[in-house]
Amino acid sequence: MIRLSVNVNKIATLRNARGGNIPNVVEAARTCIAAGCHGITVHPRPDARHITFQDVFDLAAMLTVEFNIEGYPGAEFIDLVMLVRPTQVTLVPDPPGVLTSNAGWNLTSGSADWLGDLLTRFRKAGIRTSLFLEPDAEQIKRARKLGADRIELYTGPYAKAFGTPEGNVILAAHREAARLARKIGLGVNAGHDLDLKNIPAYAKAAKGLQEVSIGHALISDALYVGLTRTVKSYLKALGSKPLMVKRK
Fold it and tell me: Biggest alpha carbon distance in the chain?
């Protein structure tokens, strides 16, 4: 079963646009959990333009599902992750100030070899690790050698080209990337611009896909059809059953 982790960054973006605490990030997370999602994702950035460090602590205190913290592993981010001890940390190569993730790590140049020690540190703390990658065989093999538990395949180009011949070519690359990752012992996650239209084909192609992290499209859809209905729609698109947990 593919697990759905809802990224609540956009809830924080809307809140921050007005100030105060409406909409409330924790209440939004509770709503998603009640609807059956399997996890909550946040991506705190240095400028705190959406999720703040306090949001991360507040969520960690109430979550009854998996918690995935993603971000660039700067010193403050690393300290935050070690304090919170989430289920999973997803490391992305975003420099400070970037609008959104737009590329995977370049692990084959040698410039990211320092990630190996960090992955070991997180693993010793009981945190599952994932590296944000494009569907390139050499990058995937390098992620395994560095000691990652999983990779998260960057689906932005697939989503942009969905429904075109180019999209089919990209999808085939993701299919092979997922196959290779599984073969060498890596778990496979995916994320970025996945939505109700392009998810079914992706879920069918990327055999063994374990988790998708979705925020922008899901929260946008929720403006039209409601958050509970939207989460259920995504679970259906993934062919996944809702996770039944008691509300905390």
Answer: 48
Q: Tens digit of pLDDT for each residue in 118-156?
A: 999 999 999 999 999 999 999 999 999 999 999 999 999
Question: Do the Cβ atoms of 47 and 58 come closer than 8 Å?
Answer: no
**Radius of gyration of the chain, Cα coordinates, nearest whole angstrom:** 17
Span 59-95, pLDDT tens digits = 999 999 999 999 999 999 999 999 999 999 999 998 6
Is 211 a residue of the active site? no
Catalytic residue of the set 38, 50, 174, 192: 192
50 is catalytic: no
Known catalytic residue at 38: no
- The Cα–Cα gap between 163 and 56 comes to 37
Sign of the CA dihedral with 241 first, then 12, 127, and 189 last: positive
Out of 66, 70, 134, 211, pick the active-site residue: 70
Instruction: Name the active-site residue from 43, 50, 66, 211.
Output: 43
Q: Alpha-carbon distance 167 to 74, whole Å?
A: 34
Who contacts 65 (Cβ-Cβ below 8 Å, separation ≥6)?
33, 37, 38, 39, 40, 243, 245
Is pTM, for the whole model, over 0.85? yes
Distance from C-alpha of 135 to C-alpha of 137, rounded to nearest angstrom: 7
